[in-house]
Amino acid sequence: MARMTGGEAIVEGLIRHGIDTVFGLPGAQVYGLFDAFARASNRLRLITTRHEQSCAYMALGYAKSTGRPGAYAVVPGPGMLNTTAALATAAGVNAPVLCLTGQVPSAFLGRGRGHLHELPDQLATMRGLVKWADRIEHPSQAPLLVARAFQEMRSGRPGPVALEMPWDQFPAMGEATPVDPLPLFQPATPDGEVVARLAALLKDAKAPMIIAGGGAAHAGAEVLALAELAGAPVVAFRNGRGVVGDRHPLGLTVAAGHVLWPQTDLVIGIGSRMEYPATRWAPGPPGLKTARIDIDPAEMRRYPVDVGIVADAAAGAAALTAALRRLLNGAARDNAARLAAVAAAKAGALEAIRKVQPQMSYLNVLRAVLPDDAFIVDEVCQAGFTATFGFPIHHPRHFVSSGFQGTLGAGFPMALGVKVAHPDTPVVSLTGDGGFLFAGTELATAVQHGINLITVVFNNNAYGNVMRDQKRLYAGRIPGSVLRNPDFQAFAASFGVPSWRVTAPEGFEAALTAALAAAAPCLIEVQTDIDQEASPWEFLVPGRA
Ligand SMILES: Cc1ncc(C[n+]2csc(CCOP(=O)(O)OP(=O)(O)O)c2C)c(N)n1
Ligand SMILES: [Mg+2]
Predict the structure, then answer these.
(1) Residues 334 and 384 in one domain
(2) Closest alpha carbon to 445 in 19, 71, 51, 30
(3) What is the three-class DSSP state of 63?
(4) Does the beta carbon of 467 sit less than 6 angstroms from any atom of ligand 1?
(5) Is 544 contained in some domain?
(6) Which ranges carry the Thiamine pyrophosphate enzyme TPP-binding domain (predicted)?
(7) Are residue 434 and residue 466 in the same domain, yes or no?
(8) Please, where are the H alpha helices in 335-457?
(9) 172 and 301: one domain?
(10) What pLDDT digit, counting tens, does each position of 204-242 carry?
């Protein structure tokens, strides 16, 4: 038992749970928390941003690229609300992100008196977005509730959580007993009977396919062992990229996966929503059998399949591999024909996507210049869309994306968080001019905190994706999609950020090489023209222009 303030009790809890960095933007209600950050500054780094959205996006990038919780602290009401798009995105990509925020003083809770930053029901608002949220009413409750927050974030299907504390309780003193990390809720163990049923289907399948999602990020070895035994390609869209790397013959993007789809007779999702089989490629070939391994039982009713195994991705894949091995009596399957088809699909897709110009030329230069372990953070832009199928990824968690939310403006601040977590590894943000300016002022944060991110802004003076759609669908009328931009070179210079302007892929290599060598945050502006940019969409949604 130790006597400490509410703020100190929270900070001690964070440190006990392995947090060494907090992204935060202070204000009156949370002074007591920020003062505790200051007094723990030898154990906890505070990174201040220029808008709360970036605190949350940075925590999200930190969490997604490491698999470890990311934490941020903001004022309640408008401050917390400024982070809601990031919280929704974190929920969408199953990222362990902790939101710490304040509340009106205890005596004003629920009174509707219009106290500074008061919301009708902040806790309910947060609960509508995150996996779990609670209020810490008194310093003595902080250790256990912080431990509960980590237990919820990390157990089963990971996700964001939130804690609020009334203004007066951050500086209030109380007796607080430290609480060690609580045991995680254990996921279901794979049901042997169900596993055996799927193994039998797999044994008979001529053309099985695995879809790997973000839930398999930790299960690369198990997924690969299954894939190799079964002769199944492992197709990944966004957050499953790198579970089986693209250099492996069985590692496929959705562009290559789609080539094999018409022949597929069994598709197994592992830690994936199975967006492609369920929607983008639906209904799929006649006679197709469907299966999935997922830690979240609710997934089985969201997208019902023929065989559903509720289990952690690694445990489920390992159990399935063992069961298949038993059925094969230790003999190897003859996968030669399947492997040849997979290789042909990969080669064919590589050839087909070459026409997505100029994006592919830029991405090819980027891949050639960057080391294998570099992190790429995409955006809702032409280069980002193209990267999902056109930029080879060699390790899990190295392609960081806003997932199904498609959160424009998330990429650049998420990439800052990725770089904070990996200061010695190159991190590149691929963003459009539209998305970049959602949080472009965080170049100040990059400079202030020495976050040496390389940001590539594809400047087509447009919300280009919208403009292309509008021209196609609405007789050329383009409301709201033309952008008159600042001079990005002068913009970068005003922050003291070195920058380059590139007008063709030929000039990109020199700029990138210089940016990699500069020990500074850097910006490379690539001038493009939406009318000259090939649509990447046919490789993302078959039949879409
Ligand atoms: C938060 C949010 N607002 C709006 C959109 C709709 N939207 C999708 S793409 C896009 C334009 C992106 O423009 P830019 O970042 O310049 O990329 P470009 O397509 O021009 O390469 C918009 C507005 C979105 N996806 N997310
Ligand atoms: Mg644009």
Answers:
(1) no
(2) 51
(3) helix
(4) no
(5) no
(6) 385-526
(7) yes
(8) 336-352, 359-369, 382-390, 411-421, 433-436, 443-448
(9) no
(10) 999 999 999 999 999 999 999 999 999 999 999 999 999
User: 344 and 360: one domain?
Assistant: no
- Contact present, 341 and 263 (Cβ < 8 Å): yes
Residue 414: DSSP 8-state? H
The response to whether residue 459 sits with its C-beta less than 6 Å from ligand 1 reads no
Whether 460 and 482 have beta carbons less than 8 Å apart is answered as: no
> Tokens standing for 210?
């695995």
* Residue whose entry in the numeric block shows the structure tokens 């159990």: 319
CA angle 162, 163, 167 (to 5 degrees): 140
Q: Does residue 470 lie within any of the structural domains?
A: yes
Residue 279: both structure tokens together = 């929607």
> Closest ligand 1 atom, CA of 460?
20
- Judge if the beta carbon of residue 381 lies within 6 A of ligand 1: yes
Rg (CA), the chain: 24
- CA dist., res. 150 & res. 110, Å (int): 27
**Considering only CA atoms, which residue is closest to atom 20 of ligand 1?**
464
Which among 206, 308, 221 has a CA at the least distance from the CA of 262? 206
Q: What's the domain range around 458? A: 356-539
Residue 140 and residue 205 in one domain: no
Domain count, the chain: 3
HSE (side-chain half, CA atoms, 13 Å) at 283? 2
pTM of the model: 0.98
pLDDT, tens only, 139-174: 999 999 999 999 999 999 999 999 999 999 999 999
Q: 335, 351, 367 — which closes off a domain?
A: 351
Neighbours of 486 (CB within 10 A): 12
